[in-house]
Amino acid sequence: xxxxxxxxxxxxxxxxxxxxxxxxxxxxxxxxxxxxxxxxxxxxxxxxxxxxxxxxxxxxxxxxxxxxxxxxxxxxxxxxxxxxxxxxxxxxxxxxxxxxxxxxxxxxxxxxxxxxxxxxxxxxxxxxxxxxxxxxxxxxxxxxxxxxxxxxxxxxxxxxxxxxxxxxxxxxxxxxxxxxxxxxxxxxxxxxxxxxxxxxxxxxxxxxxxxxxxxxxxxxx
Length: 221
What we know:
This protein is of the alpha/beta class. It has nine helices and eight strands. An eight-stranded parallel sheet has the order 7-6-5-4-3-2-1-8. α1 (2-22) packs across α2 and α4 (90-96) crosses α5.
């Protein structure tokens, strides 16, 4: 597992660099998030040793159980929450994560607005947009995104860094990436969390600043 994960990381890094060249972008304009959800510390350690310093997790409790010792051993490591966040887990999330990609509803925004000022931490926040308007998926509808972003800023005092989206699995991702980028631009947001193992090159073409890659690095769960 460890050897293949390191090889997977190297292969993904080459693909990210190639996608940046093709999009005429600088490589450092894209942050590669290695999605380590469900993998234990033993699987993650070799990827850290290979130099990767940005990781993504789906659940607060899982991350809390395994990451503090890894972060202590590898200074400069940053942790991104890419899964749904329950309002009652906000304090724990703010204490552990450096970025939260799933701000998707007023109750969560309100909880973050209360927790962040007393945490003493600066956490990057992304609003999740449900570009496919899928009922089973989290995220604000595209037509409601502008209003929600404004409320996050004005009502709850949040500094929103960017947007995140997960296109429907049975549709071409490009139109969804384009829609997310359009919403970000009109709201003066510079960061886009778009693209996973199967489509990150396309996401980079459409302006992704953060790509979330799990199985292409760690293998299938």
